[in-house]
Amino acid sequence: MQKQSDKFTFSVLTILVTLSLLVILVVLVTSVVRLVDKSIGGTPFVDQDLVAERLTPYGRVNTGNLVSDVVKAKAPQDVYAGLCASCHDTGLNDAPLMGDNAVWAVRFQERGLDGLHDSSLHGRNLMPAKGGDPRLTDEEVMHTVDFILSKSGIEVASSDPAEDIVAEEESDEAEVGETEVAAEEQADEAIVEEDQVAEEANDKTE
Predict the structure, then answer these.
(1) The domain containing residue 160 runs over which residues?
(2) pLDDT digits over 68-114, tens only?
(3) Which residues form a coiled coil (predicted)?
C-alpha cells in the first residue's frame, strides 16, 4: 500500500515538473521572440490602426493643376513667346521668321488665312499640330497665327483678335505716356505753389 502511494506521489510530481518546464519554455520562447522583434525595429501586426499607419505613403507627388476649373484663354503673344518663338524667332527647321513680310506674304497669298490656320492646327512639314501643345484650343492657335501675320505686316480681318491686341498694347503705351506727363505737370505745379507760398511768407515777415 505504501509503495502504491509513493508511485502516485512520484507520478504527480513528475507531471507538475513537466508542466512547469513547459510553462518556463513557453515564457522563454515568447521573450526571445519579442526581443528579436524589437531589435529589428518592428512590432507584430496585430493592430489594424498600426497596419494602416505603416502603409501610409511617406510623400505625394504634386503634378500641379493640369486642368483648371476655370479655363482662361491664352493671349496670342503668350502662346507665341512660350511655344512658337523657338522656331519663328530663330528660323529653326526652316520656319519663317516673324516680321519677314516678304516670306509671310507669299504664304498668305498661296494658302490664305484659312490655309495657314489649317497648317497650324494639323501640322505641316516639321511643324507639329498646334505647335506640339495639344492643350491649346483651336481658337488660341488661330489667334496666334493672326498675331504673327499682323506683326509681319500682313493685314488680317478687322475683327481679328491679334489686331485688337496690338491696338490695345499701343493704347496702353499711350496712356502710360500721358499719365507720366500729367504726373510731371502736377509735380511742377506743386513746386510753383510752394515757391509762391514761401515768397508770400517772406513778404509778411519783412
Answers:
(1) 76-165
(2) 444 577 899 999 998 899 899 988 888 899 999 999 999 999 999 99
(3) none
Q: Residue 67 pLDDT more than 50?
A: no
Spatial neighbors of 101 by CB under 8 A, at least 6 apart, are 152, 153, 154
pTM for this structure? 0.45
Structurally, how many domains does the chain consist of? 1
- Specify if 9 maps to a domain: no
**Rounded-to-integer distance, Cα 74 and Cα 91, Å:** 24
Compute the distance between CA of residue 176 and CA of residue 186 in angstroms, rounded to an integer.
15
Residue 127, strand partner residues: 124
Count Cα atoms within 13 angstroms, Cβ side, for 4: 1
The mean pLDDT of 120-144, rounded to a whole number, is 91
In a domain, 190, yes or no: no
In a domain, 135, yes or no: yes
Model confidence pLDDT, tens digit, residues 157-198: 644 445 555 566 666 666 666 677 677 777 777 777 777 766
C-alpha distances in angstroms, 39 versus 32, 54, 55? 11, 18, 21
Exposed, middle or buried, 120 (CB in 10 Å: 0-12/13-18/19+)?
buried
The torsion angles phi and psi of 140, rounded to 5 degrees, stand at: -60, -40
Report which of 175, 140, 135, 131 is spatially closest to residue 161, judged by C-alpha positions. 140
